[in-house]
Amino acid sequence: MKTQDILPVLLSIAVIILVAVLEKQSKFAAAITATMPIGATLAIWIVYSANSGDQKTMKDFSVGLLMGIIPSIGFLFAAWLSFRSGLKLVPMLLVGYVVWGALLGMIIYLRNLFGLT
């Protein structure tokens, strides 16, 4: 394996460990670390490397990343509402992923409807 294949995985593991360590000191710092655009950065790096920086590929991938933000925000909003209403972890995750899936389905449907695929 090449360094460009292994390094993103190692960085992802490092972020997870950092969140676990920060969580003991500051929930806010752990949350900010968890939501940093590291995943998107690593994904851009991987796709860029795999496609030799092809502009069309990167443009299409970037649009996909932007569209993916909407369901992710829906997931986080649903998680927040679920915890506020007293749900435990597993039901909260189920609600979050249902909202995420519904929003993703809506985006895919609208992209197909308007010919943006």
Topology:
Layout: H1 3-25, H2 27-35, H3 38-50, H4 55-84, H5 89-113
What integer value in Å does the Rg equal? 17 Å
* DSSP strand count: 0
Number of helices: 5
Helix and strand run: HHHHH
- Structural class of the secondary elements? mainly alpha
As a percent range, the share of strand residues is: under 5%
Quaternary structure annotation: single chain
Major beta-sheet overview: none
Shape: flat
Number of structural domains? 2
Helix content: over 70%
Q: What's the N-to-C terminus distance?
A: 33 Å
Low-confidence stretches: none
Average pLDDT works out at: 91
Describe what is shown at a glance.
The chain is mainly α and 117 residues long. The chain has helices at residues 3-25, 27-35, 38-50, 55-84, 89-113. The longest helix is centred in the middle third of the chain and has 30 residues, at 55-84.
Please give a structural write-up.
The longest helix is centred in the middle third of the chain and has 30 residues, at 55-84. The protein has two domains: 1-50; 54-117, no CATH class. The chain has helices spanning 3-25, 27-35, 38-50, 55-84, 89-113. It contains five helices and no strands. It is flat, with a radius of gyration of 17 Å. Helix 1 packs antiparallel against helix 2 and helix 1 packs antiparallel against helix 3 (38-50). The chain is an all-alpha fold and 117 residues long.
Features:
single chain, 85% helix, 2 domains, 117 residues, mainly alpha, 0% strand, flat
